[in-house]
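Friendly challenge for the regulars: who can give me the structure tokens for this chain first? No prize, just bragging rights.
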Amino acid sequence: MLRYATPLIFAAIGGIFSERSGVTNIGLEGMLLSGAFFGILAADKLESWPLGLLMAAASGAVFGLIHAFFSIHLRSDQIVGGFAINFLALGITGYLFIDIYGGQGTPTDVPEIPDVHLAFLQDWYFIGPIFGQLNLMIWLAAATVVLSWAVLFRTPVGLRLRAVGEHPRAAETVGISVYATRYVAVTLSGVLAALGGAYLSIGFVNSFSQNMTAGRGFIALAVVITGNWRPFSAAAIALLFGLSSALAQRLPAYSDSAAVLFQALPYVLTLIAVAGVIGRSIPPAAVGRPYKKQ
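First reply, four minutes later:
Bragging rights claimed.
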């Protein structure tokens, strides 16, 4: 469950930062995918998983900056811009994957993000097998949730970011740069989503395939909405999605038809969440609305 939820948590926290600043980020899918590809590419060619994470974060930042430029400076439609990011990432990663690796795929000996072994938990019944040897990125995802909550709701930086997402005109009158705040938030959104993608390729499956994110970015967007743009709530929803994905992998041994249903469950829950059936979420007042300086 935790392994399946981790990329969703990274992408969802990124989406929260972007949308709390007032910019809708449909491009989470493309940012996840770019992180997955460039993460494993750098880990393979440079023989270092930390450099893989760094390259993944850089690719996410680039896609975030592109989305920010079109959404903030050019004031283009943020939904259309987000889909453009997704298609751009799909095209770039697909082309480079075929060009570099051809039909052979990625090597099997790519450096992996290591697990964190907690020896003192090994003898604890039930807890030890679950938390005793989790991947490093799972712990970083948990830390990201706590840190993002603290930044958003317990610091002046978070207050300014939320002000920009609620009342950008009022924020500007008190000296807050709406453009700069949104640029930072959307870029950070890309970095976090890309780290989730890197976990997929060099922390979870240790390989890459075209379009391997398979809609996880859209699920992360549903997590943001269902979680009411709050980190802890979003993390809880991501765990629910992760549970359904984990069950889908376990059930084929008992029932193929039930496994197929559970594989579809995250996408069904996404539709339900976006439709507002699971509670009525209240988005930031200015999200999705282009802002023009006076």
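The mean pLDDT is 89. The chain has twelve helices and two strands. Your move, everyone else.
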